[in-house]
Design a protein that fits this description.
Layout (H helix, E strand, L loop, with lengths): L3 E5 L3 E7 L14 E7 L1 H11 L3 E8 L3 H12 L7 E3 L5 E7 L5 E6 L8 H11 L6 E5 L4 H14 L2 E5 L7 H4 L5 E5 H8 L7 H8 L5 E5 L5 E4 L4 E4 L12 H14 L4 H15 L12 H10 L4 E3 L1
Parallel strand pairs: 1-4, 1-8, 2-6, 4-5, 8-9, 9-10, 10-11
Antiparallel strand pairs: 2-3, 6-7, 11-12, 12-13, 13-14
The protein binds alpha-D-ribofuranose.
The site of alpha-D-ribofuranose (RIB) has 16 residues, from strand 2, helix 1, strand 7 and helix 8.
Length: 311
Amino acid sequence: MPGRCLVVGSVNTDIVLVVPRFAAPGETLLATGMSVIGGGKGANQAVAAARLGAHVALIAAIGNDLFSEHRYNELEREGINLRFLARVTGLGGLALIERNAEGENRIVVAAGANAALDGESVRRAMRELELCSQDVVVTQLEIPLPAVEAALSMARETGARRVLNATPWSDVALELLHSCDVLVVNALKARQAAGVGSEEPIELVATRLVEHVPIVVVTLGGEGAVLVTKHERLQCRAPHVPVVDTTAAGDAFTAALAVSLLEGESWEGTLVRAVWAGALTVQRPGAQPSLPFRSELEQAIAAHPLVTERW
Ligand code: RIB
């Protein structure tokens, strides 16, 4: 029986405004559409992993407002173990998302209840979960640093594999590189982490980072992704798909990678699944509504198998 996927991360309500273009400073623009939906990098990754077939638990903090109530009910319906979801007084996390006609977004996040997730509650919850080496712990940087550090250090003690999706990027991520087994990061941040400029080929950037982290995965948006270990260097090009909304594509990618780790998938298979999970997500609007189910992912891979190249 495969292990469990434990996500330690944020829960947000996404307020999405569809705009013809991004507003200039001082300008008032009329949106052409709006929606209020489940988001937050932690919750998105938990939902994506559950839809891809993993047993998922989420350690997070939500508020006592109506939005948080909706988030709780949605996550429960996804079959996620919410025993360690803290409820704090006040508003839950909020993300204000503008999405333009090209499917690009601009996101501002207010932490709300996410800011209350502390290291000690993460440690306590992880002790109770009795993790083991078959489990995978996934975390991101949308919660306070002590919570991320606790997740990674407790995971190391139990032997669980540690996936850090270093987003939203901050330089504190540099101190966490030695504490994770897998780093998932986009090209811009990978260059920042490696301390190199935009002229450095991304393959070299990933190779440099592997001196600090055993497995480095750099996402390249519509170009696909590269995965580098001490022994393997793989690249997978993304399929050409119509882009409606890129929100949560990185979350679907990270979750597919974590589920593949749980299932002992090869690195080639892992990269293909992760790239396709992202490519399915961008074809639909919103964060959680756009995350693919396992059957869709399998159908997409069967219909359009992607090729991984070694370099
Ligand atoms: O990764 C996408 C997510 O980033 C959105 O759902 C939003 O809540 C922000 O956390």
